[in-house]
Amino acid sequence: MGHDLPGAANSFTTSRLLAWFVWKTMNSISRAVPEVALQAIRKLITEQGFGPGGALPSQRDLALQLGVSRASLREALSSLSALGVISIQPGKGVFVQSPVELPRGEGAPGWPFAAQASPLDIFQLRYALEGFAAGLAAVTLSTDELDALEDNVAAMRIELKSGDFEAAARLDFDFHRRILLASGNQAMLSILTASADIFLESQKLPFIRAERAMETWQEHRKVLRALARRASGAAQKAMHEHVRNAALRTGIAFVAPAAT
Questions:
Q1: Which of 2, 49, 50, 224 could be a cystine partner for 96, CB 3.0 to 4.6 Å?
Q2: What global pTM score does this model have?
Q3: Helix residue spans in 113-231 (DSSP H)
Q4: Domain 8-29+105-250, what architecture?
């Protein structure tokens, strides 16, 4: 199958149009109910002085207090738990683990693209873009493309084992680029191409937590297995989970909207 990039003028126009559409979509995502609930819980912990070990109100009471559904509340709590802010103990309740201020990702220290977009913006864009691309790629990718992805995943494991996180981040970027390429959607690929430096920088961020670096390789392997099975839904789900987990490893509370 052909995957040549379109001409520069057409690529730019398509990229601008699709970027506008995705921006409109992301504008709604950023105000999703679980995100509102997450920030409200964060505010509750800070303003009411909950310290480590402090018990939050029951999930039923929290949902009523915040005016959100139990499903939205559970998703918000799950993200806070992944960040280590709270501990959810079945049958006992929800307890504060760390009252430390929770980063939201608007301006991560040292982020060189603050004038264009925050890390949170980029992770949300990647969630929308790359999840869909993975679903498409499961149907369209060739045997050679699958082999190249397998080689990439194997190489990433070697670099992570040696502690070369710069090389691992470049392989991370290449893994996602190859999936976009295999999807056959030139408009989506043009967004990555036009903003390659920003995407690559976002893929360096999760490696700030060296003890969790291998999670990236494990998640890539899960995406790869779904692609190898030609399981479109599983590939999309695995990619969504990977992007959300990468954001969490960065310290960014990433909440996706519930499916309707």
A1: 50
A2: 0.66
A3: 119-140, 143-162, 165-183, 186-194, 196-204, 214-228
A4: Up-down Bundle (1.20)
